[in-house]
Design brief:
Blueprint: H1 21-26, H2 36-44, H3 59-70, H4 90-93, E1 101-105, H5 122-143, H6 155-163, H7 170-188, E2 193-197, H8 201-209, H9 212-222
Parallel strand pairs: 1-2
Helix pairs in contact: 5-7, 7-9, 8-9
């Protein structure tokens, strides 16, 4: 058995550092089948789930697995899950690739400034962190931009959508994901699954580098 799948003539590789489920499957990387996590999570039916585990515990890979399973961007990708535990559940199998999913990682949302000499002002570091977060949000909007071609949306909707970019004001950040969720639900007629990875990284960086108050003010409305 190879991580829960039947043996084939395909060479299995023992790669390290993978955090993307699809990439692991396509490259035939050895994988211990943890897909039953999807069933457990779905059965709990919580509005919000917070996963706090030690570093290198596999949180990002699990979230990537959830995205690949539910996201309609992976519609028809049964090849990623056939032979896995989650595929044994007929009801869940019918849900594969049927939901709009927003997946964002703030792993790189840091100030971007080397302040080892202590000469970089706190405000500059805070602005660097904000810019990094705004880029992540803007890139997420870019993924779904084609929905705005639909007649379901008004010119005002398209104007707002276009305003979400890396130099958007802080006030726009506070509403950006809730608006994107609303747009996706309207377009796909389904509730949206939102996955946030490394949400605490910007806050940890803020604490270490002395711009905690600025970070809290920035994230309060967003989170």
């Amino acid at each position: 058995m190879q991580g829960g799948m039947e043996e084939t003539d395909m060479e299995v590789k023992h790669g390290l550092g993978y955090q993307n489920y699809e990439k692991m499957m396509l490259n035939h990387i050895f994988y211990i089948d943890k897909t039953d996590f999807i069933r457990e999570w779905w059965d709990y039916a919580d509005e919000v789930t917070l996963i706090t585990r030690p570093r290198r515990f596999g949180k990002t890979l699990n979230m990537s697995t959830v995205e690949c399973f539910f996201s309609n961007r992976y519609e028809g990708r049964s090849d990623l899950f056939e032979g896995r535990r989650v595929w044994e559940d007929e009801e869940l199998r019918a849900l594969q690739g049927t939901y709009p999913v927003i997946f964002m990682s703030f792993a790189g949302a840091k100030s971007g400034y080397d302040d080892q000499d202590g000469n970089v002002a706190r405000k500059i570091r805070a602005e660097g962190m904000k810019t990094a977060v705004k880029k992540v949000i803007a890139q997420t909007y870019k993924i779904f931009e084609d929905i705005m071609k639909s007649a379901l949306f008004s010119d005002a909707d398209r104007e707002y959508y276009a305003s979400v970019k890396k130099d958007m004001p802080d006030e726009t950040v506070a509403t950006a994901i809730s608006f994107l969720s609303m747009y996706l639900e309207k377009f796909y007629q389904k509730k949206v699954i939102i996955l946030l990875d490394e949400y605490d990284t910007p806050m940890q960086e803020a604490w270490v580098h002395g711009y905690w108050n600025e970070a809290v003010a920035f994230f309060r409305g967003f989170l």
